[in-house]
Write a structure and sequence with these properties.
35% helix; globular; eight-stranded mixed sheet; single chain; 309 residues
């Protein structure tokens, strides 16, 4: 393997910060184009963070070594009798400043076509050099879910404790490999905690932009880093999209009935009224995370006491 450190360059000084300038060790979020991103959930979330938070470029990867331009040909501009420019994609890391002044690193760009193991090692080097405490991947997948229900999430991690309380939706399955999953697997094996959130996008909207899925990803990320991330613009965009979809569905009796049927099926799955087993979809918690009757009763009593008169 060629030296992984030769895959990237630091384009900004990241060594000047002192503990009083950075409240907590940073988190690295990766959003890589090329694999499934239904509803553009992850790319919308990444673009929104860059639009809403102060940031600077800190790392640039050598895409000439990682990309197959023939499979994803860059766009070129031609004017009259000459080529005038080429839009070469960038795979970069931005440093974002969160509302509490802590840092978040965002690795975004095209998914590498080659050298996955070397790329994973280079990301490991960055994780260690930047003092990253947690790496998080964001994705969106088509799901048999209606747009009239809250966006669900499949959470996965190198350590179950990182996502305790979040249901398991899928049993044992084989899935196509992608670099985001490779990073989650390898970094976890190397002792660096990793988490992934995959938004469930209504399958009939998977090819369009679906902002509610991006909001769900950012909410999960907010819970993880314990900092409220800005989502107002995305929520407004999501409300517009849902209104447009509702209007289109209402115009067709056949489509309306199909959505209602999907609602019944989805509600049955969420409530546990369907078969379960390896490979089947249905939310469930590990037994050691299920509250017992005494804990539930104590929670109800505490809630009632807080109501006062």
């Amino acid at each position: 393997m060629l030296p992984p450190e030769e895959l990237f360059e630091l384009v900004a000084d990241v060594s000047r910060r002192t503990p009083d300038q950075v409240p907590a060790a940073p988190v690295l979020v990766h959003v890589l184009d090329g694999f499934v991103d239904a509803g553009s959930a992850a790319s919308l979330a990444a673009a929104h963070l860059l639009d809403q938070l102060p940031h600077r470029l800190v790392v640039r990867f050598d895409v000439d070594q990682l990309l197959d331009y023939r499979s994803r040909r860059p766009r070129m501009a031609f004017s009259a009798d000459r080529y005038t420019s080429v839009d070469v994609p960038e795979l970069v890391v931005h440093e974002l400043r969160l509302p509490d002044s802590s840092l978040l690193y965002l690795l975004a760009g095209p998914e590498p076509d080659t050298q996955w193991e070397r790329f994973a090692l280079s990301v490991r080097m960055l994780v260690e050099q930047l003092g990253v405490r947690l790496t998080v991947g964001l994705h969106g997948v088509p799901w048999a879910a209606p747009h009239t229900r809250p966006v669900g999430l499949t959470a996965h991690a190198s350590d179950r404790e990182l996502i305790a309380g979040r249901p398991r939706w899928i049993g044992d399955v084989q899935v196509p490999g992608h670099v985001g999953a490779m990073l989650e697997l390898r970094l976890g094996q190397w002792g660096h905690p990793t988490v992934g959130f995959t938004a469930h996008v209504p399958h009939y909207l998977a090819a369009a932009e679906f902002p509610p899925a991006a909001v769900a990803l950012l909410e999960a990320l907010s819970d993880l880093v314990e900092v409220e991330l800005p989502t107002e613009k995305l929520r407004a965009a999501g409300a517009e999209v849902l209104a447009q979809v509702d209007a289109q569905v209402a115009d067709s009796a056949e489509t309306l009935e199909a959505v209602r049927g999907l609602e019944r099926q989805y509600d049955a799955i969420v409530s546990g009224r369907t078969l379960g087993g390896p490979g089947l979809m249905g939310p469930s918690l590990p037994e050691d995370e299920m509250p017992d009757a005494d804990a539930l009763a104590a929670d109800v009593e505490r809630f009632l006491r807080e109501l006062g008169d």
